[in-house]
Amino acid sequence: MWDHPWEGYGHQRVTVWFKKPGGSWHYVKTLWTNSTGRFWGKTTASASGYWRVVFGGNGEADGSKSRIDWVRVKR
Predict the structure, then answer these.
(1) Could you tell me if residue 62 is inside a domain?
(2) Alpha carbon of 62 to those of 9, 46, 48, 55, 68: distances in Å?
(3) Residue 1 falls within a domain, yes or no?
(4) What is the mean pLDDT of the segment spanning 20-46?
C-alpha cells in the first residue's frame, strides 16, 4: 500500500500546448518547475480552445501529460 503523498518533481522542463476545436496541437511555450514541482506562466489566448501541459520525461521518470482544459475567449 502506498501511504506517501504525491510529491512534485522539481527543476524540470514542461511545455504548454494549445489546440483549436478540430485542429491539431501547437507548441506555445516552455516553463520550468520550481523546487517543489510547481510551475506557472502567462500567455495571451486569442481564441477558444484546449490547453495541456506536457512533461517529456528524463532519465529517471517517464513523460506525462496533464488533463485537457477548455478555455473560452470572449470578445
Answers:
(1) yes
(2) 12, 32, 30, 8, 19
(3) no
(4) 94
